[in-house]
């Protein structure tokens, strides 16, 4: 019963009756990962539908020069790379855990056959894809139209509650900028009393002042 209650917290399964949940669990498994563990590599063929239960998962690609390009950070609870399952394609990017985490791995062939006919589930997957498309559009728009200071300010504005848990090096990676560049911007925002920094962590922000930094774009 405890396991069923845990699964009920996931939107994708919240409407399922106990009998269907029991069946779903019969071809699913919960996996634990440590920070730095790879979930999948670019080019691999997917066999499971993944649901992130705990932790932070980084989706990234590697350019021809070997540089890492961060595409997205996924936080729980969330489907992971569900488009590759729907389209029958290989993973177009890699995924690595940025913290210890847990994944629910569901045998996709069985799930597709016995569950995707459920309208509520199909609708949830569409909503999940829509959120990811919107996030990607924001990343593209930000990189094309904003200077680095504006991108940093917008990130601090959008992620204000998560900032105390993020190192500046990790923030630089998310924004595809160098730690040195981020450090200069953080120093500037701190001197202007737009953010408060303690022991290298950003613990408080003035959202009104931050908005002024990127509102022209």
TrEMBL record:
Any one GO molecular-function label of the UniProt entry: DNA-binding transcription factor activity
SUPFAM superfamilies per record: cAMP-binding domain-like, Winged helix' DNA-binding domain
HTH crp-type domain boundaries: 146-209
Pfam families (UniProt xref): cNMP_binding (PF00027), HTH_Crp_2 (PF13545)
Record GO cellular component, one term: cytosol
Protein's UniProt keywords contain Coiled coil: no
Domain Cyclic nucleotide-binding: from-to ranges: 12-132
Keyword line: DNA-binding, Transcription, Transcription regulation
Classification via InterPro entries: cNMP-bd_dom (IPR000595), cNMP-bd_dom_sf (IPR018490), Env_Response_Regulators (IPR050397), HTH_CRP (IPR012318), RmlC-like_jellyroll (IPR014710), WH_DNA-bd_sf (IPR036390)
Signal sequence interval, chain numbering: none
Native source species: Wolinella succinogenes (strain ATCC 29543 / DSM 1740 / CCUG 13145 / JCM 31913 / LMG 7466 / NCTC 11488 / FDC 602W)
Protein name, as recorded: PUTATIVE TRANSCRIPTIONAL REGULATOR
């Amino acid at each position: 019963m405890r396991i069923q209650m845990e699964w009920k917290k996931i939107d994708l399964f919240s409407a399922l009756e106990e009998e269907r949940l029991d069946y779903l669990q019969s071809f699913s498994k919960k996996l634990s990962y440590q920070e730095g563990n790879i979930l999948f590599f670019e080019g691999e063929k997917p066999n499971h539908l993944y649901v992130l239960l705990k932790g932070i998962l980084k989706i990234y690609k590697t350019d021809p020069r070997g540089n890492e390009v961060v595409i997205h950070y996924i936080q729980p609870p969330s489907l992971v790379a569900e488009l590759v399952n729907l389209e029958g394609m290989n993973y177009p990017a890699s995924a690595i855990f940025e913290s210890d985490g847990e994944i629910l791995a569901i045998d996709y062939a069985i799930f597709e056959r016995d569950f995707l006919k459920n309208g509520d589930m199909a609708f949830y997957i569409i909503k999940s894809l829509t959120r990811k498309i919107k996030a990607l559009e924001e990343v593209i728009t930000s990189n094309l139209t904003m200077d680095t200071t504006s991108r940093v300010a917008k990130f601090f504005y959008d992620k204000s509650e998560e900032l105390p848990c993020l190192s500046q090096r990790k923030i630089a990676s998310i924004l595809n900028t160098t730690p040195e560049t981020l450090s200069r911007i953080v120093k500037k925002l701190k001197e202007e009393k737009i953010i408060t920094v303690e022991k290298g962590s950003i613990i408080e922000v003035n959202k009104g002042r931050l908005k002024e930094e990127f509102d022209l774009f």
